[in-house]
């Protein structure tokens, strides 16, 4: 892994405040973070620590109040809504907790949606290929309501991967799933990193989920407070989390 | 985009409002347009065999009532010249005059059509009419009568349509032909009866009999010398020339190609007439028919514009609501890479699909309904007798396109708002009611209120004739303002209305549900507000003005009886003479002063030419000026203007001489009326009220159609809003159910909310309308200088409100009941 390669996403002194005056809340406070290509990063932290904001700003869904977010070498600041949408469309994939499939569309149509929105006709086999990769061969014509939660999340992952984005953001991807389905989804994410050098940034509460990542970032009060390699294991991560939550609880 | 089709297919429920609104809108427009386009001017059937018609030069006054005439000498001379034109086989002047059949002393048939029912025998050739029995009329008092004769209650069949195509005509021709075989027997049989009554009802006419008719002179008994296979009364040519006021048409029959004959005739006529062929002949449609079609057209135009407007209104409110409900889905599309433009285009694409689908179904539905309405329209007097609906491809295409355009106009605002939804909204549970009051509402709402208030306040300063329009304008502004500001007004109103029930669980839920869902309540209340407001205002204004008009009109006359026409277009000379009164003949003349020509009605009275002020102004003439007067019979005279007064008049002998067909419109009686055919005596007040009622009948019909259409659209808007809102609140209801609410309680809550929203709308709309009505009344009182009662149309208001309430209940309860069913 070369250090001078362009990071998939980079945050420099990223600050995000909501509201003004007395009621202003600082969700991100001068955060610096680099997400190198082909790495799997888990972001953890107690509720309100700013991990969702970090994900939204890093993905170009939300704009920073200060500092810079650079997606695949392109600074987000100064981009029009349209240009930002295009950047997101071509370089960023999303997986949400609540699956977020368009209920009107079939699995295949949902997967093809980003390509179609980019004005590109999916190539023959492209969509079925991605669906097969997530283990849903033969389910192309099913609508979300005809799929289980785990299957829906796998469609969402296929949709996120189909445009080969520079980075895939996952927001609690296993949060709404039972343990078995969750584990399958995590294996899928891991293999995307291993096989396709896909960059993944995953926000999670779950130490087991975090343990599958290459590294784990800990956020508290809008700052990166710690970093561990994923290989330390779920138990260690859980312990660390508990310690951090205790600490913030005390400081409050 | 194919995604749009998938969306439409999947979420048809949220497009149902748009679909229904566009479907109905397109159906109304297609039906009305079909009726409108089918109702085209048509040359009378009695010119069917005359492909070329020559008329005197246009009067050029810009008023279709002004028509020049040739004197009968001029007409004969021109006809003789035209008869010599190559290709022309005959040139026949068509003088016409007023004849109406009397049955048992009562005039029958359509009074306006009767004005042109008398003809010269030679003109029968223009329609290709032939004797079916007997012989032509030769001397005064002889007549050939047409079949069918006017039947009571319908217009003269003369104006129905061409005899080539309508079954009615071919049937009557057959009847008349059949009659020839029975002349002998039926003729003798009915001579005993002494009248032609039996003949007309049986459709058989004998030759050796008489017929009772009413003309401008009075009742006459004519000897029937024969029958003809077309409508009308045909007398000897010389007799017709005497009775008619000039000649307005010369018909040409031709051999070979029409066009060379037309060109030759044009060269021959020069500036002394207009040669018409082909579609130009249709300009000769009788004025009475034109007027009927005009009234019908007004209603149809009103329906089309209201239908289009209401569709925009409903589509925009439906789309706004559905976009608000789809916030998450639209945010998701944005998150996976849809640009704002793509979201907007998708909404346009969805609406286009729905509107096209609705239009392609609605247009044929409307067009299929149109022929069913034709008879009713004829009966009500909105289309001439014999009106038939024809296939109008322009109505089909036009209405579908209009539906599409109107739907896209309606979705614009929603699409723009939707495209600004941030992608992050996909990640939020969008349970928050978006702000109900937008900046635009805050700006436009008060502006409308100020404009409306200013109009009401400034009304006394406005010229009299502008005041009622100002009142209506003020009301429109105030209604718009109330609708825009309704989210603010709703809160205190709901507290007040729901106050008495605040201690019950249902009451609390209803009140709080309404207060937190202000936007939903506002979009339910707004259409109710508009409809109730419009109903109170329109119906109230009409009723108030009708009352006022009665007071105003009757105040002008002494408490006496008047002799007025009884089923006739005017009083005959005999009817007037019987009362020992002087006739007050009304004629229309063309007056030229310098380069200006104006048409004017003039009454036969006094001993000189008196101009009314309006005409005098138009002509720029004063007492003492000499003007050229062209009479109804085509004769001209140089007359000095004796005076300028309220009403125009001419010496009676001049009117009688130059307009032998003129009638007296009414006379004020000094003694008890002597009965005369075609005349009746009534107290002035009753007569005025009859006239007003007659007008009122049409106005009421218009009101009914317009309010009906508005109410229909309100129903769609209210129903759709509540259906969508209640469906979207499933989660909330689920929570209520878990908290222990039974199905009955749930139903009571949604029903209560729906009724509350309707009441709020009705109260606001009613208040605004009553305020405006008070303004209108003040203006009218000022106008006639008397106090009048404010008439509030409680019946119509109650009906409209009840309709809204019923629909609101049904559409709010439906999803709840459906949910309860699926559970059990």
Number of helices, where a helix is a run of at least 4 consecutive DSSP H or I residues of chain A = 8
- Determine the strand fraction of chain B and express it as a percent band: 5-15%
Strand order of the biggest β-sheet of chain A: 6-7-8-3-9-10
Tell me the helix content of chain A. Answer: 25-40%
Main sheet makeup of chain B: 9 strands, mixed
Descriptive account of the structure:
The complex is a heterodimer of chains A (252) and B (824). With 252 residues, chain A is α/β, with parallel strands linked by helices. Chain A is built from eight helices and ten strands. Chain A is 36% helix and 24% strand. In chain A, strands 6-7-8-3-9-10 form a six-stranded mixed sheet, sandwiched between helices. Chain A is globular. Helices cover 56% and strands 14% of the residues of chain B. The relative contact order of chain B is 0.12. In chain B, strand 9 and strand 10 form a beta hairpin. In chain B, the strands form four sheets. In chain B, strands 3, 4, 5, 6, 7, 8, 9, 10 and 11 form a nine-stranded mixed sheet that branches. In chain B, strands 15, 16, 17, 18, 19, 20 and 21 form a seven-stranded mixed sheet that branches. A four-stranded antiparallel sheet of chain B has the order 2-12-1-13. In chain B, helix 2 packs antiparallel against helix 10. Chain B is built from 24 helices and 23 strands. Chains A and B meet through helix 2 and helix 3 of A and helix 1, helix 11 and helix 12 of B.
């Amino acid at each position: 892994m070369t250090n001078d390669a362009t990071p998939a996403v980079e945050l420099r002194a990223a600050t995000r405040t909501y509201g003004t005056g007395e009621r202003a809340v600082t969700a991100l406070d001068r955060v610096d973070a680099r997400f190198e290509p082909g790495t799997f990063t888990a972001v953890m932290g107690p509720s309100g620590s700013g991990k969702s904001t970090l994900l939204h700003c890093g993905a170009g869904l939300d704009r920073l109040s200060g500092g810079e977010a650079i997606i695949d070498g392109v600074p987000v600041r100064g981009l029009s809504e349209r240009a930002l949408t295009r950047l997101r469309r071509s370089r960023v994939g999303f997986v949400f907790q609540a699956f977020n499939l368009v209920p009107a569309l079939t699995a295949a149509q949902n997967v093809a949606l980003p390509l179609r929105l980019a004005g590109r006709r999916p190539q023959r086999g492209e969509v079925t290929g991605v669906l097969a990769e997530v283990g849903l061969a033969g389910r192309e014509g099913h609508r979300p309501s005809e799929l289980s939660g785990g299957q829906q999340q796998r469609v969402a992952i296929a949709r996120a991967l189909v445009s080969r984005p520079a980075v895939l953001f996952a927001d609690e991807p296993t949060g709404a799933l039972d343990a078995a389905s969750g584990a399958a989804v995590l294996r899928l994410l891991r293999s995307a990193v291993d096989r396709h050098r896909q960059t993944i940034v995953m926000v999670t509460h779950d130490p087991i989920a975090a343990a599958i990542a290459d590294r784990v970032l800990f956020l508290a009060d809008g700052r990166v407070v710690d970093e561990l390699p994923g290989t330390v294991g779920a138990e260690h991560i859980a312990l660390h989390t508990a310690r951090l939550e205790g600490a913030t609880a005390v400081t409050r | 985009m194919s995604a749009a089709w998938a969306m439409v297919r999947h979420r048809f429920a949220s497009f149902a409002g748009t679909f229904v609104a566009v479907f109905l809108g397109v159906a109304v427009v297609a039906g009305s347009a079909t009726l409108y386009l089918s109702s085209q001017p048509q040359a009378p059937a009695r010119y069917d065999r005359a492909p070329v018609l020559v008329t005197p030069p246009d009067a050029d006054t810009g008023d279709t009532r002004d028509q020049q005439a040739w004197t009968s000498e001029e007409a004969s001379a021109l006809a003789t010249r035209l008869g010599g034109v190559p290709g022309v086989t005959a040139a026949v002047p068509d003088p016409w005059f007023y004849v109406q059949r009397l049955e048992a002393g009562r005039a029958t048939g359509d009074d306006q059509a009767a004005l042109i029912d008398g003809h010269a025998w030679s003109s029968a050739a223009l329609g290709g009419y032939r004797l079916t029995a007997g012989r032509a009329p030769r001397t005064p008092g002889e007549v050939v009568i047409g079949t069918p004769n006017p039947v009571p209650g319908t217009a003269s069949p003369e104006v129905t349509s061409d005899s080539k195509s309508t079954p009615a005509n071919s049937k009557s021709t057959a009847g008349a032909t059949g009659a020839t075989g029975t002349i002998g027997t039926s003729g003798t049989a009915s001579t005993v009866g002494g009248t032609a009554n039996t003949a007309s009802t049986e459709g058989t006419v004998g030759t050796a009999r008489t017929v009772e008719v009413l003309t401008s002179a009075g009742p006459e008994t004519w000897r029937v010398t024969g029958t003809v296979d077309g409508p009308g009364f045909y007398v000897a040519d010389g007799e017709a020339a005497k009775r008619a006021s000039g000649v307005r048409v010369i018909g040409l029959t031709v051999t070979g190609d029409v066009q060379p004959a037309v060109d030759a005739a044009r060269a021959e006529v020069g500036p002394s007439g207009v040669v018409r062929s082909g579609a130009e002949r249709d300009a000769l449609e009788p004025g009475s028919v034109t007027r009927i079609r005009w009234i019908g057209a007004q209603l149809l135009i009103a329906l089309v514009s209201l239908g289009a407007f209401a569709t925009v209104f409903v589509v925009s409110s439906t789309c706004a609501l559905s976009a608000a409900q789809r916030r998450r889905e639209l945010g998701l599309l944005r998150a996976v890479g849809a640009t704002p433009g793509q979201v907007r285009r998708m909404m346009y694409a969805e609406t286009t699909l729905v509107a096209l689908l609705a239009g392609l179904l609605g247009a044929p539905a409307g067009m299929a309904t149109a022929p069913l309405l034709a008879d009713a329209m004829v009966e009500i007097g909105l289309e001439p007798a014999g009106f038939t609906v024809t296939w109008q491809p322009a109505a089909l295409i036009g209405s579908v396109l209009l539906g599409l355009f109107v739907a896209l106009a309606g979705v614009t605002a929603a699409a723009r708002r939707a495209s600004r939804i941030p992608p992050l909204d996909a990640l939020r549970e969008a349970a928050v009611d978006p702000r109900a009051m937008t900046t635009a509402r805050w700006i436009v709402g008060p502006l409308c209120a100020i404009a409306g208030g200013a109009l009401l306040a400034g009304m006394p300063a406005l010229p009299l004739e502008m005041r009622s329009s100002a009142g209506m304008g003020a009301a429109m502004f105030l209604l718009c303002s109330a609708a825009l500001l309704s989210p603010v007004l709703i809160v205190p109103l709901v507290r007040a209305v729901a106050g008495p029930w605040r201690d019950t669980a249902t009451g609390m839920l209803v009140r709080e549900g309404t207060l937190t869902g202000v936007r939903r309540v506002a979009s339910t209340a707004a259409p109710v507000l508009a409809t109730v407001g419009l109903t109170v205002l329109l119906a109230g204004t009409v009723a108030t003005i009708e009352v006022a008009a009665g007071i105003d009109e009757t105040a002008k006359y002494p408490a006496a009886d008047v002799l007025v026409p009884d089923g006739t277009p005017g009083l005959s000379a005999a009817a007037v003479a019987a009362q020992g009164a002087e006739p007050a003949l009304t004629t229309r003349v063309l007056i030229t002063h310098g380069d200006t020509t104006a048409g004017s009605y003039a009454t036969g009275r006094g001993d000189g030419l008196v101009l009314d002020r309006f005409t005098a102004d138009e002509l720029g003439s004063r007492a003492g000026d000499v003007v050229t007067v062209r009479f109804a019979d085509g004769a001209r005279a140089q007359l000095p203007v004796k005076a300028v007064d309220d009403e125009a008049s001419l010496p009676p002998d001049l009117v009688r001489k130059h307009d032998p067909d003129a009638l007296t419109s009414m006379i004020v009686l000094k003694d008890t009326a002597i009965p005369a055919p075609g005349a009746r005596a009534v107290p002035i007040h009753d007569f005025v009220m009859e006239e007003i009622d007659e007008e009122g009948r049409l106005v009421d019909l218009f009101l009914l159609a317009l309010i009906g259409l508005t109410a229909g659209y309100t129903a769609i808007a209210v129903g759709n809003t509540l259906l969508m809102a209640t469906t979207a609140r499933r989660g909330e209801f689920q929570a209520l159910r878990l908290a222990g609410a039974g199905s009955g309680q749930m139903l009571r809550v949604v029903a209560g909310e729906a009724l509350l929203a309707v009441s709020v709308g009705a109260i606001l709309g009613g208040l605004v309308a009553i305020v405006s009505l008070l303004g209108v009344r003040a203006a009218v009182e000022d106008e006639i200088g008397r106090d009048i009662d404010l008439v509030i149309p409680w019946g119509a208001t109650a009906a409209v409100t009840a309709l809204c309430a019923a629909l609101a209940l049904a559409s709010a309860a439906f999803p709840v009941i459906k949910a309860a069913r699926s559970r059990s």
